[in-house]
Amino acid sequence: MDLRQLFATNLRRLRHSRGISQEQLANDAGIDRAYVSRVERAVTYVGLEIIGKLSTILGVEPAEFFQRPSKRSVKRQSD
Q: CB 18: neighbour CB atoms within 10 A?
C-alpha cells in the first residue's frame, strides 16, 4: 500500500469512527468537500498544512494517518 492510499484509508476510518461527514470535515477544516473526497479516494496528494488541519479536527496526531493497520484489524475487516 502506498502512502497516498494509506493516508486515504486512515482518514476515512478516523472520519467514520467519529461520525463526521466529508462535508462537515471539509467545512471545519476550511477546505473544499470535493478535495476531501479526492484525498479519501487517493486521487490526489495532501500537503502538510492540510494534514495539520485534518488532525486537529479529528483529534489525532498527524502520524496516525500513516499508521499501517495491524494484521489483526486487517483480518477482522476481511471476515
A: 13
pTM: 0.84
The CA-atom distances, in angstroms, between 9 and each of 41, 64 are 8, 11
Q: Is 26 exposed, middle or buried (0-12, 13-18, 19+ CB in 10 A)?
A: buried
- Helix, strand, coil percentages, rounded to 5, for the chain: 70, 0, 30
Cβ neighbours around 10 below 10 Å, total: 19
pLDDT 10s digits, 3-13? 999 999 999 99
